[in-house]
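Fold these two proteins, one after the other.
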Amino acid sequence: MAAVLCIGHAVQDFVFSVDAMPGAAEKYRASSFESVGGGPAATAAVAIARLGGVAQLAARIGDDAIAGEVVADLKSFGVDCSLVRRFANRTSSLSAVIVDKSGERLIVNYLDPALDTSPGWLPQQLPDGVGAVLADTRWPEGALHGLQLARQAGVPGVLDADLPVPADGELVRAATHVAFSAAGLAGFCDTTDPAAALRAADAKTDAWCCVTLGGDGAMYMSDGELRRMAAFEVEVSDTLGAGDVWHGAFALALADGLEITAALQFASAAAALKVANGGGRSGSPMRADVDAFLQQQQSAELA
């Protein structure tokens, strides 16, 4: 099985379901509540494990009750947490997540600004068997270290380039593959036109670049040309974590040696099934489900 080292953010999400997104500073009653693990790198690691890969997470958390919930949840999915480091007298990251009946979500996150940012405790070379590195932007110092290790080892280094993407471009240049969110790309290139922004980003790095656009699929650069891949159509349960699942599936596909179009299709299928399943991390699909879904889509195209 391919192994992926994920570096970045691990958080506990407190999820409140409401009929409609709050529009004023008033009291609202939730129809349901659950506490689930979150964070881009952590959720991607769960997705990788459920898709049959070996997932190892490097992340910073506090030494508090929430830290115990974070680690226990990750381990329950089979994620290797040996590089999840607890810092004394610090608060683990947590979020309030509001999900409306259409599946859209609003997230307010707290990340302790006093958490040590130094990556000096991370491995100085990739662990044996790691076929790709996936890093988010919530811990830039750790992400840069991991992406540089990937370059040195000659394996894919994928940057989940969501807000905030450091403006100096060092992370983008360190990666071999950069998958921007629409907001991350707009912030990095200072334009809301995703096509123009993607071309501008592509000119700043030798990395392969794409932007994920949710239900509108993805745009990517290939030999200097802008190309599009449509999203798979599914009934939306909720979108929470779908982008993180996409990144995890994409990194695993690259670690497995898939060419770029096949990797994009695999990631898109995994994210689509997550959106349809709902249920936080537990909605991340298994490998057999993704393979079956792709076969169904191919059969439908040939019919």
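Now the second one:
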Amino acid sequence: MLILQVLVFVLVLFLIYVQSRPNDFRYERSRLINASPEKVFEQVNEFRNWEKWSPWIEMEPTAVLTYGDKTEGEGAFYRWDGKKTGSGSCTILRSAPSLAVDVALEFEKPMKSSARADFKLVPEGAATRVSWIMSGSNNFIAKFFGVVFNSEKMISKSFDRGLERIAQLVE
């Protein structure tokens, strides 16, 4: 009986710890790419180009991608549906030529959630500093996932891979 009480106590402490985690998240990675902001902008502003560099499409090339009538600039839309990557959609909310692209992400599977993915492009001489930022809110399940698996490490690794692939395309 004592062992069961201790286990319940430890479980309650763990759940309190999970609930105490931040309500919001923000992950950011950046890379200096030896190309003009215009060339980088072309890659992130056109959803069909994401097939060439997205780390998640690379992870699951058989995922079904469905594009909206518009695939570039504000209002552009695409959906994905895969076994590994789950399902969801992306919509470009803001497209500032050679400066920024802001994207709304809606995840449906494996877990419903929303997030933002923003790309910021800053010229540095003949190169461009590209920052990929993901932000959103953590519900309890997302907090739990973040404690059990290091979400920031996983996302950062994917962002680094995507930025590397963009660099390979435009340099």
